[in-house]
Write a structure and sequence with these properties.
14 helices, alpha+beta
Length: about 425
């Protein structure tokens, strides 16, 4: 359904509801008069006579007392019922004119206010679609102005990069490439080289063969953990149909991020697509987190073991939930010394926490003698513990311990 139609329809519907509520408040009858006094008095005296007869039948009253009281009640009844009932108050006048004026005025006032202050053109799909095109002249003017400035002052590589990015936003890859090349000539930079390689692939219709792949391999040869290099290597592999290689590169990049990093979501989406293409429904084991039995050296200054879930809780945990396994100091500090992230679909799984999974070089697991070992399963994947998360905790676990059993067995209140 067209989003603009939904907006107009919703606005009219809400206005109609408000008008109907206000009109009902104005037109409804305020009251129906006072109750019939004579009828009420008759009911009271009938009940009193009935009570009097009951007392006499039970022997609580003598015949004389009964007759005297009955005569008195009948006299009071005759006196009260001879009084005319007070006339019922008249109905409050129905303010029909006010209601009709309101029914017309409110919608007209609302529409007039929107026409005055709102963006009427925004309701036009053609106008909204043209917004992106309207930005093109601004970008073209920016590119022309920057290129002119660089004619007289061409020594700033960052300006050349900005010019290249502006041409790239305009899809003018043939002009963007020389700008990136000029920036590289003023100062070698692996990030800029990778950016130029990506633009070159775009210029070639998405083909990374030749120079783009050569640049990627050159950067990764110098630094196998180069984050941007791994991301671009994954994209290049994916574009060539090598989904397993794409998974490998993207997973290596992802393993470098903290659980709260905003880039994780985008990488996870790319990984899921690559796994689907490769026929791998569940994520592979992270290279940065080898099995606990891989080597004694990896656990000498770390902790290894196996994560499992209490069988009674398995029905409450979905395969898409996120599992965090981490270690914190025993002095109560909450910042993890080391952490690994997995999918609930992998449970049960082996884990290793050591200095390679540290969140900060200054805070190493190997610097501790004992740690608090924790596992948390989150449905949202958030780094912070939330109510409803499932957890398991082991206190005072000696660093160097192996075959630790970490069980998810309780829920955060």
């Amino acid at each position: 359904m067209n989003v603009h139609f939904v907006f107009v329809f919703s606005a009219l519907a809400l206005t109609a509801v408000v008008v109907l509520i206000l009109m009902w408040s104005l037109l409804r009858v305020r009251g129906e008069g006072s109750p019939n006094v004579v009828h009420a008095n008759q009911q009271v005296y009938r009940q009193q006579l009935k009570d009097l007869e009951t007392e006499w039948a039970q022997g609580a009253l003598t015949a004389h007392e009964y007759a005297q009281n009955r005569t008195e009640l009948l006299g009071r009844l005759l006196e009260d019922t001879t009084q005319a009932d007070a006339p019922e108050p008249k109905q409050a006048p129905r303010t029909l004119v006010s209601a009709m004026v309101l029914a017309v005025f409110l919608p007209v006032a609302a529409m007039s206010t929107y026409l005055w202050l709102g963006d009427v053109d925004g309701l036009n799909p053609l106008t909204a679609a043209a917004d992106d095109k309207d930005n093109r002249p601004d970008l073209e003017a920016m590119a022309a102005s920057l290129a002119k400035k660089l004619e007289s002052d061409s020594g700033d590589p960052q300006r050349w990069v900005m010019l290249g990015r502006t041409y790239r936003a305009l899809n003018q890859y043939d002009k963007a490439l020389p700008a990136y090349q000029k920036a590289l000539s003023l100062g070698a930079d692996d990030d800029i080289a990778l950016e130029r390689a990506e633009v070159l692939a775009q210029y070639n219709g998405g083909d990374f063969k030749g120079e783009p792949w050569a640049v990627i391999r050159q950067v990764l040869a110098k630094n196998a953990r180069h984050f941007s290099g791994l991301l671009l290597a994954g994209s290049a592999s994916y574009s060539q149909g090598d989904y397993k290689a794409a998974i490998r590169f993207w997973q290596q990049a992802r393993d470098q991020l903290a659980p709260s990093d905003e880039e994780i979501q985008g990488i996870d989406m790319a990984l899921n697509k690559a796994r689907e293409k490769a026929g791998e429904p569940s994520p592979p084991s992270s290279p940065a987190n080898p099995p606990a039995t891989s080597s004694a050296a990896s656990t000498a200054s770390g902790v290894s073991g196996r994560v499992s879930v209490d069988p009674a809780l398995k029905a409450s945990i979905a395969p898409s939930d996120v599992v965090f396994v981490y270690a914190t100091p025993t002095d109560g500090q909450k910042m993890p010394l080391a952490i690994v992230r997995k999918s609930a679909a992998d449970v049960p799984f082996d884990f290793v926490l050591d200095d390679s999974s540290a969140m900060s070089p200054e805070r190493k697991l190997s610097s501790q003698s004992k740690v608090v070992l924790k596992v948390r399963i989150s449905k949202t994947g958030e780094a912070m513990t939330r109510s409803g998360d499932w957890i398991g905790v082991l206190d005072a676990v000696a660093v160097g311990s192996r075959n630790v059993r970490l069980i998810v067995n309780q829920q955060v209140p």
